[in-house]
From TrEMBL:
Protein name: Carbon-nitrogen hydrolase family protein
UniProt keyword terms in alphabetical order: Hydrolase
Gene Ontology MF term list: hydrolase activity, acting on carbon-nitrogen (but not peptide) bonds, in linear amides
InterPro entries per UniProt: Aliph_Amidase/BUP, C-N_Hydrolase, C-N_Hydrolase_sf
PANTHER family: CARBON-NITROGEN FAMILY, PUTATIVE (AFU_ORTHOLOGUE AFUA_5G02350)-RELATED, NITRILASE C965.09-RELATED
Annotated ranges, domain CN hydrolase: 5-241
Length: 311
């Protein structure tokens, strides 16, 4: 059964404020800035909006740890409440990444996920911090990699430097989220499609600094991207899908395409040896199709090859 999810990703160029403004005035300016950013994608009626790392901290404020801490303390939950109201009004999820001070006074670089009612349904704290975050900003590493349940599927998160660390990626390989949200000031290059493919997950990058923000498929294809003209992108993905290897599946794939035609989509990125099959009908699910045609998933094929090697 198709499971369509409309995703909006918003990037950012460096937002600068007049440093002669009071901190309260700076918060007011950033609120107007963020309202304008979200107004670009809200007419599309997305199911989820993903924002870049430190989305509500002006670039020139962030250059100073002392100013950043002061700003965040004055800001408090004002922007959280703003996003909560927008999520409730428009019936969408919002992934809101920023620097937050916890009840124990520690600082965390985290993503808070708000649901369609504006309630916080989960939070991910960056597991792998840069040395600058630790030494200059006093940020504390997160220790958990939660999977957050949404009404359309299961979400995992990563922030910036996290993308360099296999330990976190392998946790997600094991937990198999439907969607990975990546908020960052660093693009990650080849790591984005690598994470998407290795985790068999759709991947959403919301990247600051004027770099491309994009939605990738589980076989690493870019499905939609921001451009040099527009720092946002919206696309619809189908989470009722599976990654399968072509070995031993070619005839089976021809059979399912012959029977289901446009009700099944087969996306081949080329050179990979694996394809993404998606169920585009409500008559059945991707699992039904896999069982009907005895199609072997990529992970099952790799496990079978590993077992033969062990023997």
């Amino acid at each position: 059964m198709s499971n369509y999810v409309k995703i909006s990703t918003i990037g950012s160029r460096e937002f600068i404020v007049d440093e002669l403004l009071t901190t309260e005035e700076i918060v007011d300016r950033i609120i107007k800035h963020l309202q304008q950013k979200l107004s670009q994608v809200l007419p599309e009626q997305p199911d989820i909006i993903v924002l870049p790392e430190f989305c509500d901290i002006p670039f020139n404020v962030f250059l100073s740890p002392a100013k950043t801490h002061e700003y965040c303390q004055v800001r408090g939950d004002r922007i959280l409440r703003l996003f909560s109201d927008i999520a409730r009004e428009h019936g969408c999820y919002i992934a809101y990444p920023t620097l937050r001070q916890q009840e124990d006074q520690s600082w965390r670089n985290s993503i808070a996920l708000l649901d369609r009612s504006g309630d916080k349904v989960g939070e991910y704290a960056k597991n792998y911090l840069t040395l600058g975050e630790i030494e200059d900003y006093g940020v504390t590493c997160g220790t958990e990699a939660p999977i957050i349940d949404c009404d359309f599927g299961r979400i995992a998160c990563a922030i910036c430097f996290d993308l360099n660390f296999d330990r976190l990626r392998l946790q997600y390989v094991e937990s198999k989220p439907d969607l990975i949200l990546f908020s960052s000031l660093y693009h990650g290059g080849i790591m984005q499609p690598y994470w998407a493919y290795s985790c068999r997950s759709h991947f959403v990058g919301a990247i600051g600094g004027g770099q491309p923000s994009a939605v990738l498929s589980p076989v690493g294809e870019v499905l939609a991207s921001s451009t040099n003209y527009f720092d946002f992108a919206t696309t619809t993905v189908n989470l009722d899908c599976a990654v399968v290897h072509l070995d031993y599946n070619m005839e089976r794939l021809r059979g399912l395409k012959s029977k289901y035609g446009s009700k099944v989509k087969i996306a081949d990125p080329g050179y990979l040896g694996s394809v993404l099959i998606s169920c585009e009908t409500d008559e059945c699910t991707i699992e039904d199709i896999i069982q009907e045609f005895n199609i072997e998933r990529l992970d099952d094929y790799l496990d079978r090859a590993t077992a033969w090697r062990a023997e």
